[in-house]
Structure formats: structure tokens, C-alpha cells
Specification:
Chain lengths: 113, 112
């Protein structure tokens, strides 16, 4: 069945440094890929999604490219801020999952000032 | 912006106790979901529903019942709570032919 694997956290960075959170997926279908963010004390919320291979999604300075050949969807940001401290989830949705979300285990990001 | 509310926000019960968690969405979404979130496991799907009266089993259903009474309301029932069910519970909703889920603020449950 479908699966999503992402960088195990926590990841601790200093403000102003660059971020990469790895996400790899397995499916026999053509998924839509998602990044969700969960700030402390809140539920997860959509950061962005990409429905098509080789396209890029972005929001709030974060971006990820849907790489079908490598089955990857790595989250990147050039310069993180303390307010980016959160848990980041990679997820996919496709016909095999009955269009329900298959979640990665989440990556906790801690940004130190 | 989709609106999903959950109640209570915090709940403490004892082993063997009876607990009901409530979720309401006001966006006319067809799908509603119950997840639990635990350190090291991320989000795990307990049950979901695609309309009033419908119930689908998720990945970790044991020990949980759910009921969708209306389009808006989805309840999670723990009839004999155990300490292993101590967790943070999230409800989410999604529209038909949409792929984005909208989450509530969560209910923190402690089973002593």
C-alpha cells in the first residue's frame, strides 16, 4: 500500500539558516502531494499541495518540488525564522488510498534565535 | 476558511470510564475524520465518515466507536477507556471532490 517517509525529528536550527526536510513516498498511482504544518496548540493546516509531477508548490517561503522519478517531495526554506518552529507533515492522496490522506510521521522543527 | 470545532478541549477520566468527544463542522463538508496524535507516531486515523449515518474504519479503530449523526456532527466514543488511549485527538473535515482536510483545535484526553 501507499506510504510516506520523512526526516525524523526533532530538527534544531539557528535562525537564518536553510532547511531541508526530506519526504519520500511509495505508491503505484499518481498522487497529489501535500505539506501540512502544525503550530503549537493548534491542529494541522495545509501549507501547500502539488497535484502534478515536476511542479513546485510554495507558501510562506517554503517550497517543494514533486519529483516523480525520485518519488520525493522535500520541503525547503532558504532562511528559517523562529516563527517557523512547528511540526511539518508530508502526505499523499491517490486512488489507492481512496483519496484519503496517507501521512508521514511528522518532523518537529525547532528554530533557535 | 473552513471551521471545525471540538469539545471538550481537555478531558480527564479514569480507566474504564466512558468518554465522548464531539466535533462539529459548519462548511457542509461530506467527509469527517477522527485522528489521534502521539509522539513518534504522528497522525493516525481512527474512523471516518462520508455522510450522516455512514462510518468507515480507519487504521487504529480498536477501542473506539464513532457516530455521524448529522452532516455537521461527528462523535468519537470510548466506552471503556484505557491509559493507552491517552492522546491528543483531532477531528478534520473535507469536501467531496476536494483533497484538503481542515482540522479542529484538538482534544487532549488523559486516562488515569
Amino acid at each position: 500500500g501507499d506510504s510516506v517517509t520523512q526526516t525524523e525529528g526533532p530538527v534544531t536550527l539557528s535562525e537564518g539558516t536553510s532547511l531541508t526536510v526530506n519526504c519520500s513516498y511509495e505508491t503505484k498511482q499518481y498522487p497529489t502531494l501535500f505539506w501540512y504544518v502544525q503550530y503549537p496548540g493548534e491542529g494541522p493546516q495545509l501549507l501547500f499541495k502539488v497535484p502534478k509531477a515536476n511542479e513546485k508548490g510554495s507558501n510562506r517561503g517554503f517550497e517543494a518540488t514533486y519529483n516523480k522519478e525520485a518519488t520525493s517531495f522535500h520541503l525547503q526554506k532558504a532562511s528559517v525564522q523562529e516563527s517557523d518552529s512547528a511540526v511539518y507533515y508530508c502526505a499523499l492522496s491517490d486512488m489507492d488510498s481512496n483519496y484519503q490522506l496517507i501521512w508521514g510521521s511528522g518532523t518537529k522543527l525547532i528554530i533557535k534565535p | 476558511e473552513a471551521a471545525v470545532t471540538q469539545s471538550p478541549r481537555n478531558k480527564v477520566t479514569v480507566t474504564g470510564g466512558n468518554v465522548t468527544l464531539s466535533c462539529r463542522q459548519t462548511n457542509s463538508h461530506n467527509y469527517m475524520y477522527w485522528y489521534r496524535q502521539d509522539t513518534g507516531h504522528g497522525l493516525r486515523l481512527i474512523h471516518y465518515s462520508y455522510g450522516a449515518g455512514n462510518l468507515q474504519i480507519g487504521d487504529v479503530p480498536d477501542g473506539y466507536k464513532a457516530t455521524r449523526t448529522t452532516q455537521e456532527d461527528f462523535f468519537l466514543l470510548l466506552e471503556l477507556a484505557s491509559p493507552s488511549q491517552t492522546s491528543l485527538y483531532f477531528c478534520a473535515s473535507k469536501g467531496h471532490n476536494q483533497d484538503t482536510q481542515y482540522f479542529g483545535p484538538g482534544t487532549r484526553l488523559l486516562v488515569l
